[in-house]
Design goal:
Order of helices and strands of chain B: HEH
Helix content of chain B: 40-55%
Structural class of chain B: mainly alpha
Distance between the termini of chain B: 58 Å
Largest sheet of chain B: none
Strand content of chain A: over 45%
Radius of gyration of chain B: 23 Å
Strand order of the largest sheet of chain A: 7-8-9-10-15-14-13-12
Helix content of chain A: 10-25%
Largest sheet of chain A: 8 strands, antiparallel, barrel
Number of helices of chain B: 2
Structural class of chain A: mainly beta
Oligomer: heterodimer
Chain lengths: 640, 55
């Protein structure tokens, strides 16, 4: 039910069209008028609206996700010192309301939700998780004290312009965002939950196609107030800081290029020029900003370079180069990732902690969408699952999550086409994939298949292969001493028709005794002698009620490379004195498969995958030598 | 690389298969020589007093 009154400042009619509205900015005099029951309070004139690149204006209408149609009834401008953003009040036809947050070209639809018990403002820490009840567990990504700098239309709270407004932003599962509103105190007053939306999602008609320019139309050249060098602003609607590419001075893009830091030279130059365009991941990016950052560990500085890429529709991404290794970095929703000291997970993938440190901004060049400054330091943690690396960066008031994907240098060179060749890669990058990673699985599978084939073929050839060339059973004469000449026998001549090895199988029905045969295979034509021996030993018994046995009733011996020909056997048996066996049998087969050869073949089959595995371990050892968790101290090298 | 490994693997398999079927042994045994006279003289293995046991 609309509430009409007269402005206590100028007397003009003011209308609170939403029942929940408590503050109205008079359209005529700009005074903030608060509704206090039946009375009105005048909080004085609010400051003019800060020029922001908003596409919206009061009075626009839309509809969202089955809710009643809404109208943009109010605009709140908040500042946290180095930036200002807009919050729009959506008033629904049924009297309900929601916020539409607009920042850096992104919109978040936020509806009020039941307030669960949450930490007080002083207790809330970025990176910590907060249970928001049925909506799930959220990660605190930002905690700040902003200031109500200006507004227009009507607002659902009774706060004087200029008041401090404390809040915490959170990200939850499934792309959800949340804001805990602390007002100007310590206790939470409200929680809003929603998600990122587009103006198309909201069905808003009549929004501007392009944001109002801040200082320059896109691509317009300006001059550096410090050195006079021409500046080209490529994302004027979102740029907050510009580092002059000629003198390096840092300028405030939101305050008419006010000089923030005077420099006289540019310390580090990118490998391709600002403004270069390149297609990566299917998007045409423009390179607009460059910075060198570093961490220092044990007095050693480790530096890397970050290339800020921009696309009007996709927003911002990074190309990061370190020691000749490149990664494409994109921001990810903190609520969909989890990170601890030992590991992290995102999108069903697990990441291992690689290293932590304090990353410092050393040099900047070009334009940036946040208030960057040399010396800015964040606490960073990197987690790897090559070719990806999940990183968190945390300050006292904000945390961000990003996902890097390793790029081959040639991909970057092909995209941006700079002069010369890419810098040579040094060492192994944290997220550099092992070059043969895709081959490991198939090679091991192939090896297992080949080994299984060897086993199958060995069994098949053992059963069906080979040729029996001799078989006979010999009796032991009575009253003959073991090993005596009288015990020796000669076989009938037999033919071996093809050269190859010979398997001798000795079988004897021994029990608690042995038979040992000293044999010779004699070629009748050449007189060549191949000697062999075989022993059958079998003992058994019962001891302490337990039966036992050892040995067996047959044994094998082999002769190698026996030529084809006519042969006889000379056999000289020995046995345990007093326990002569009744007989012993001898069978000779030619061209039989050997077990040790099959095992050797299997070993050779696995040499290749084992070598691959060894190289992978060496690669990983080198990768982790640069981490907080080296496999071994002093590991180095430049494998691969 | 997988193709190269397939070639290598099947080469190993083929060489082993040929060795298994042909009775190839990597190392030759030391082979003795029986003098001709020992084979032909009385008391040599051809004229040894009795053959026994062979069936």
């Amino acid at each position: 039910m609309p509430y009409q009154a007269s402005c206590p400042q100028c007397g003009s009619e003011i209308v609170f069209s939403l029942g929940a509205s408590l503050l109205k900015i008079c359209e005529h005099c700009g005074s903030a008028v608060a509704r206090k029951g039946a009375d009105l309070a005048n909080y004085g004139k609010v400051a003019d609206l800060v020029s922001t690149p908003s596409l919206l204006s009061l009075g626009l209408r839309g509809g969202y996700s089955g809710a009643p149609p809404f109208t943009l009834l109010g605009r709140l401008q908040l500042s946290f010192g180095s930036g200002t953003w807009d919050e729009w009040l959506l008033g629904f036809r049924d009297g309900n309301w929601a916020w539409l947050s607009e920042s850096q070209g992104k919109f978040h639809y936020m509806g009020q939700a039941p307030l669960p018990p949450v930490p007080r403002f002083e207790e809330i820490r970025v990176g910590a998780t907060v249970d928001l009840g049925a909506q799930g567990t959220f990660v605190v990504t930002e905690s700040r004290e902003g200031r109500f700098v200006s507004g227009a239309g009507e607002l659902p709270f009774d706060v004087a312009p200029g008041s401090a407004m404390r809040y915490a932003d959170l990200q939850g599962p499934g792309g959800q965002f949340a804001t805990i509103d602390y007002g100007s105190g310590s206790a939470a007053e409200a929680v809003y939950i929603g998600r990122e939306v587009t103006l198309d999602d909201l069905g808003i008609k009549g929004a501007k196609e392009e944001p109002a320019p801040l200082q320059a139309v896109k691509g317009e050249a300006l001059g550096c107030p410090q050195c006079g060098g021409p500046l080209e602003i490529r994302a004027p609607d979102q740029t907050q800081r510009i580092a002059c590419p000629y003198c390096g001075s840092l300028l405030d893009a939101t305050k008419d290029l006010m000089v923030i830091e005077v420099m006289t030279s540019v310390e580090v130059q990118p490998l391709f020029p600002l403004g270069a365009k390149g297609r990566l991941m299917g998007v045409q990016w423009t390179f607009i900003g460059f910075m060198e950052r570093s961490v220092t560990v044990d007095y050693v500085r480790y530096a890397w370079r970050e290339y800020l890429l921009h696309d009007p529709r996709k927003g911002f991404r990074w190309l990061v180069e370190s020691k000749g290794h490149w990664s494409f970095v994109e921001p990810i929703h903190a609520g969909d990732a989890s990170a601890s000291l030992s590991g992290a997970s995102y999108g069903g993938e697990s990441f291992k902690h690689f290293q932590s440190g304090f990353a410092r901004v050393d040099s900047v060049l070009g334009e940036f969408y946040w208030a960057v400054a040399r010396g800015d330091t964040t606490e960073s943690r990197d987690y790897v699952a090559p070719p990806r690396m999940l990183s968190t960066e945390e300050t006292e008031s904000e945390t961000t999550y990003s996902l890097a994907t390793y790029l081959e240098p040639e991909q970057v060179w092909k995209a941006f086409n700079p002069k010369g060749k890419p810098p040579e890669r040094i060492g192994i990058a944290p997220n550099q994939p092992w070059p043969h990673a895709a081959e490991m699985g198939p090679v091991w599978l192939t090896a297992l298949g080949l080994a299984a084939l060897v086993v199958l073929l060995f069994v098949a050839i053992s059963v069906t292969g080979g040729k029996q060339v001799f078989s006979a059973t010999f009796s032991i004469p009575n009253r003959v001493l073991p090993g005596s000449p009288e015990a020796a026998v000669f076989s009938e001549p037999f033919e071996i028709d093809r050269s190859g090895n010979i398997e001798v199988r000795l079988e004897a029905p021994v029990a608690n005794s042995f038979v040992y045969v000293d044999g010779a295979l004699i070629n009748e034509t050449t007189g060549d002698v191949d000697e062999f021996d075989a022993e059958v030993t079998y003992y058994h018994g019962v001891e302490d009620g337990e039966s036992w046995s050892e040995g067996g009733t047959h044994a094998r011996a082999y002769m190698s490379r026996v030529p084809a020909g006519r042969y006889v056997l000379r056999l000289a048996p020995q046995w345990e004195v007093g326990k002569p066996p009744i007989s012993y049998a001898l069978t000779l087969r030619s061209r039989v498969p050997r077990l040790h050869q099959a095992l050797l073949a299997i070993l050779l089959i696995f040499v290749w995958p084992l070598l691959l595995f060894w190289r992978k371990m060496r690669f990983e050892s080198q990768r982790w030598s640069e981490s907080d968790h080296p496999w071994m101290s002093g590991s180095s090298g430049d494998d691969e | 690389m997988r193709r190269a490994y397939l070639i290598y693997g099947f080469t190993v398999l083929g060489l082993w298969g040929a060795a298994a079927l042909s009775g190839f042994e990597l190392f030759a045994a030391t082979r003795g020589k029986l003098p001709a006279e020992a084979r032909t003289s009385p008391g040599g293995y051809r004229s040894y007093g009795y053959w026994r046991g062979g069936k």
